[in-house]
Give the backbone structure.
Amino acid sequence: MTEVRAGWGRVLTAVTCSATLTMLPVFLLGAAAPGIAADLHFDAGRLGLAVSAFWIAMAVAGLAGGHVAHALGPRVTTLAGIAIGIASLVGLATAASFPLLVVFAVVGGIATAVATPAGDMALFAVVPADRRGLAYCIKQASLPGASLLAGLGVPLVVLTYGWRWAFAAAVLVALPALIALPRRLPRSHAPASSEPMPRRAVKPRGLVPVSVAVGLAMAAVSATGGFYVVAAVAGGTAPPTAGFLLALGGVCGIGGRFIASWRFGTARRPLLVCAGLMAAGGVGTAGLATTGTTAGLAAATVLACGAGWGWNGLLTQDVVASHPEATARASAAIMVGAAVGGVAGPALFGLVATAVSYTVAWYCAGACLLLAAAVLAVREARRRLPASAAR
């Protein structure tokens, strides 16, 4: 076990890169949306459906991904996720019609559903307990990391070489994952045993309200990632500026996750911290509707992404640590909530934007984060009641 732990940095690199790779399809769909829509002839409503297709596939395949990781082990499952992610990016790069775009978005969602629980399982197995918070923080930065790469791809690739080359170039993210992934990975810290997993490990307890809150928050997060550029351009922002601002949001999302996990990783009630971040992110997301200047849009972006995306690493760390006997299944349960939110968010955002306006759509996204914060706060308040009564 000592030899395995000594290489936990390699595992972290491989897991983070594979997670980023599998998230790139959905963020590139949003970042390159103006060019894709012009070529394949679709509006904001259909863009929402394409983005939602990714999250639908992730939701449907989510729980299966946890079982696959436990059955095959984290290494084989991670490799499978990388392979499926590459297939999604290549398919999107060559898609000649909107239906094909949806098909390969679905493939991307399946890749995420496979890679995510395998990565969480691998990190819990190899990372020492005192470094686990940092490790999950880095790994969960894959979502804003994908946003950062997609945002930079607009001025650097999309506007220069075309949107298809942006998807093709994204395949390169697989290289460090494949190079760093060790040949052997343990399944857990627990001693090897031929006995089956206890039944209680199959259904981790107390995660329903957490999953609901994650779903509500991810509805806003996924809508932001999918519509930020196209909404900013519709509001008068130049496409290169919109791309750089999305990249700024990715940087802030990464920073927010690092700060939250580093500063509050040992907090007694980490989910209350997550609730506070969601609430602040809701204010920032709603602010995306009211800014008429680049500086104002940038300020709202910093708050929306820094706080509104900053809770994920801390929440995942707490959930996985609370279920050491079922890490992949606990991770998958939360991922299903995230995927359901990812399905609803872009679809509803696109419909509201098309039928009413982007302003109202941003207000709705902000309200989702505020409601998510309330759900977590109520859940934590109810958990404290028995302890108080016992005293």
